[in-house]
Amino acid sequence: MDLILFDCDGTLVDSQNVIVSTMTAAFERQGLVPPSRDAVLGIVGLSLPIAISSLAPDLDEPELSEVVASYKETYFNLRRDPSMSAPLYPGIRTALEVLASRPDTLIGIVTGKSRRGLDAILALHGLEDFFSTLQTADDAPSKPDPTMVLQALAETGGTPECTVVIGDTGFDMAMARAAGAAALGVPWGYHDADRLFSAGAQGIVSGHEDLVPWIERLLSASRVS
Predict the structure, then answer these.
(1) Which residue, of 10, 60, 112, 195, has the fewest CB within 10 Å?
(2) Residue 56 belongs to what H/E stretch?
(3) Measuring CA to CA, how many Å separate 166 from each of 71, 97, 100?
(4) How much is the CA Rg of the chain, to the nearest whole Å?
(5) Going by DSSP bridges, is the β-strand pair 203-204/105-110 parallel, antiparallel, or unpaired?
(6) Contact (Cβ atoms closer than 8 angstroms) between residue 199 and residue 173
(7) Whole-angstrom Cα distance, residue 222 to residue 161?
(8) Model pLDDT, residue 84
(9) Per-residue pLDDT tens for 164-184?
């Protein structure tokens, strides 16, 4: 079986506005100066405690825990606001439908989001039935540690040479390569092409219509090698 593992934020859904707004509010609620938009977008993909610690390395453990808790509470309040929705990127649903129709292919998610946050996104877009494995920050160390990919392989019976990880950040690419899987970058998320390639991307799609062909190309190359 082929296993196709997608990141969530910046890969499946455009969550920039809600992430930046949530992080800003979380810092302000704790009386802290919020990080810049660029700084916030630069850490998307990391698990929440690691991300916040990267943005504010001087926080001690109690302060870090307070900001993390504030982020989680703020996120679930903001996502009820229609202006803070996280829409699917163009072509994503079609690509998922094509991949899901193949009897020799399983699809999963590897994300720095919590399981509760991921479940909310999947329910919002009616995607619950597409995925055979869901790996979140609740279950594994932060990217680029390969544990989420390895757990997905164990859960599905997959093998690294038949696995492609699709993501928008260098964290995704490094995680994939560390697990022995192929790494495919998308250009519509948070890290640019240079950062994706330097982290191990073996290709970057030019647009959503190239997503499935690129997956097929990487799987074919892995089998030959």
Answers:
(1) 60
(2) none
(3) 26, 16, 15
(4) 17
(5) unpaired
(6) yes
(7) 5
(8) 66
(9) 999 999 999 999 999 999 999
